[in-house]
Fold each of these.
Amino acid sequence: MGGGSAVGRVLRDRTAGRCLAGVVVSGFGTSAMWLTAGIWVKSLTGSNSLAALTVFALWAPVLAGPALGALADRMDRKVLLVRGNLVMACLLLPLVPVDSGSAVWLVFAVLVLHGAGGVVLDAAESALVAGAVPASLRADFNGLRMTANEGMKLVAPLAGAGLYVRFGGPAVALLAATTCALAALVFARLPAGSPLRDPAPAGSRRDELAAGLRRIGASPVLRPLVAAGAATMLLAGVNGAVTFAYVDEVLGRAPAYAGVLYAVQGAGSVAVGLLAGPLLRRLPERVFAAGGIALFALRVGARAVASDAVALGASAVIGFGLPCVLVAAATAVQRETPDAVLGRTAATAGSLMTAPNAVALALGAGLVAVADVRVLTASAGAAGVLAAVALAAGARRRGAHV
């Protein structure tokens, strides 16, 4: 079955289509706010460091993924998606009167709360999809969700920046609040969910929060995929940290050229999202993930070559290969996890795979000051190839024992 018919089947499915629409609507506002928050803080304070911290403020709640994901196991997922988006819309409204550096703390407080809400809603959406979308459509949905997210990252920041230049930060906050409210309306039209079983395990609160981690660790399917995803995102963080040095020292280009490379990379991610479903129906998840990691790693290594053509091609392939393990892991989590702990497991898997990216961004920023960019990219590429080989070899061993 081709990719086009798969897209059509997802959009015709009532739950999948509306979930995807909600992701697109809310993602537009969030992506616009993501870029504009840094510009806004920079203009209010004149501080590059505070501007850079806006991204961290949005990302930091991912570290609390297991605890936040537990909320998706205690509430009706549809109700949580509706009410959660309405709460996030209300959270953004206090930013409207912010017009001086003395109130910049409010921007950071809202960003942290917005990031936490995003973790909860992502877990709720993943759990709802696993229960309401046919298994044959889940890989297509997860791929299209990746396409929607990456597509919003290409379009929304430009719209947000333009809106900021014309009307200022409060206008972007209103845009993001409006998209959250619209997403709530979309999710309100989802079919009613089935009642949740009591998700609380018999152990302590700590045991309850660790349920997702235990589930991943005990699963021969989830454990290698999540581990490979974490390793890949670690290398992606190093690659991201050296981007500006690569543009300057290897390509001899102005810093703005990094924007071109990021746009090309985003286009690659949009493409793989459309193809992920059909490919996952033909390939085992670990093989699909390993192939994506290998593509990503080889093209990261190719950044040691001083060529614009190589740079653009590498960015497109990096964008295509990097999401493969994330889509494969998300699909496996939805299939392999019992409903009662699905929210926590999805959020825990997300935390385990994304936290290394932030660590590597900091690590890479230090390494680029003391090591040649070509050495760093070649090393990251080699490490990625090893990770891909290990994942593929595990898939062969698993197949041999089936």
Amino acid sequence: MNKKIWITTLLLFLWGIIPLEAQCSMCRAVLESEEGQNAARGINNGILYLMIIPYVLIGGVGYFIYKSKKKNKA
């Protein structure tokens, strides 16, 4: 696949997950009572970052496996 297509796909994927809300219903109920909503945004961003890390690690391992198999063929 073309490198530009991979980069575009990755950027679209990352751009698409930014507006997601990942709070559970109990966290949301407690944090909605706050007036400024700063704590709610902070917790939501923290949950998203924690969710992204395993996918990045799995993607990195998959990339290195792909590169090693491609190197062995050549």
